[in-house]
Design goal:
By secondary structure, the chain is α/β, with parallel strands linked by helices. The protein is built from 14 helices and ten strands. The strands form two sheets. It has a seven-stranded mixed beta sheet. The longest helix is centred in the first third of the chain and has 18 residues.
Length: 370
């Protein structure tokens, strides 16, 4: 069951999400809560049986693999036992759909209810809402979980039909996600709503993935999107397809972070004619280079919005700059460095007390960082 759950991302890197913690039982991974705390999650499926036949999936119904299921009380007891032994500090529960989503979700919810009520479990629970979940199920789940999520898998209905032809994008996936946004009461689902995309399986573009992320953040307050790079699985229709380049996944996370934490709009991101982002340059640098007429900006006078558009200046450095410059003029690249900025990335885009410190060929500044 842990093997089947490993493809559900719990940290912003598919590779890291698939690396189990050493010295722990199988299926234990690290994740971050909404307030930045590290938790050790037991990532597990209630069942690896599934009625769907998604073309990329390791548990698709037509694949010849051993099938098994937990009884709700059995799974709850396992989680309680591992918690008491100090092996885990959270649960990440998903499942294949056995019969119909209502019945399977009822068993998942029963397992969490047993944990919460019989075992007095107060630790973190991330509960996946299965495709086709009802409004009643979503409301009940919202009262039990710290985080809820629905795997959209693809950014549009057309892209989803290429890999999951039996699922309806709007009815089975978007509707439960919207219900979750509407039914969460104050104090519930503290770590928010998330989704996950399979990157590279349906020929989707970066533009489509990030536009859907941007729209859902605005419409339902999506806490974040996870991008799971496609990796071919034997005995599936896509077993001969090339795995997604790891750099693509990293760029998607960087762009999502710019929108979520830096205040970038979707329209500030730059894509090529095919709707893809460059792999050899991070999206913040690409955005700055595409708007060279807006730079350099004067660090001693720029507002927070302007500072955050400078490569090498993040939210923490921007706050420190604004706090200090009311007392002292910033005059050197060393000042930026002391305040937490990365002057080698910022120098072509700023002036300091009227002085410009450019390095030639800013277009050639390459980095994975923001």
């Amino acid at each position: 069951m842990a093997e089947g759950a490993r493809f559900d991302a719990s940290v912003p890197s598919t590779l890291a999400a698939q690396e189990q913690l050493a010295g722990r039982p199988g299926g234990v991974y690290e994740a971050l809560t909404h307030d930045g705390r590290r938790v050790q999650l037991l990532k597990v499926l209630l069942s690896n049986a599934c009625r769907h036949d998604c073309t990329y999936c390791a548990t698709r119904c037509s694949r010849d693999i051993p099938r098994a299921s937990f009884r709700p009380e059995e799974l709850a007891g396992l989680v309680a036992q591992l918690t008491q032994a100090g092996q885990i500090s959270g649960l990440f529960l998903s499942s294949g759909i056995v019969g119909d989503p209502e019945a399977t979700m009822a068993r998942m919810i029963e397992a969490v209810e047993i944990l919460r009520h019989k075992h007095s479990y107060r630790d973190y629970v991330h509960l996946k809402l299965l495709p086709g979940s009802s409004e009643a199920v979503v409301s009940t789940a919202a009262g039990l979980a710290d985080r809820l999520s629905v795997n959209l898998e693809a950014p549009t209905a057309r892209r989803l039909s290429a890999i999951c032809p039996e699922k309806s994008f709007e009815r089975d996936l978007m509707r439960p996600l919207r219900w979750a946004a509407e039914r969460v009461q104050p104090g519930q689902v503290r770590s928010g709503l998330t989704t996950q995309f399979v990157v590279g399986a349906s020929d989707e573009t970066d533009r489509e993935l990030l536009e859907t992320t941007w729209r859902l953040t605005a419409e339902i307050g999506l806490a974040r999107s996870y991008f799971s790079g496609f990796c071919p699985v034997p005995d599936t229709p896509l077993e001969g397809r090339e795995p997604v380049a790891p750099g693509r996944e990293a760029r998607l996370y960087q762009a999502e972070f710019l929108m979520r934490s830096y205040g970038f709009s979707f329209n500030e991101l730059v894509f090529d004619d095919e709707g893809m982002m460059p792999l050899d340059r991070d999206p913040k640098m690409v955005s700055a280079l595409a708007r060279r007429d807006e730079f350099p900006i004067e660090v001693n006078a720029a507002d927070r919005w302007e500072l955050l558009r400078v490569p090498g200046i993040g939210p923490t450095a921007a706050e420190r700059i604004m706090a200090l410059r009311g007392k002292h003029k910033l005059t050197s690249l060393r000042h930026l460095e002391v305040l937490g900025a990365r002057p080698e990335r910022a120098r072509n885009f700023v002036t300091l007390n009227g002085h410009y410190f450019p390095r030639e060929e800013p277009a050639m500044q390459l980095s994975m960082g923001l």
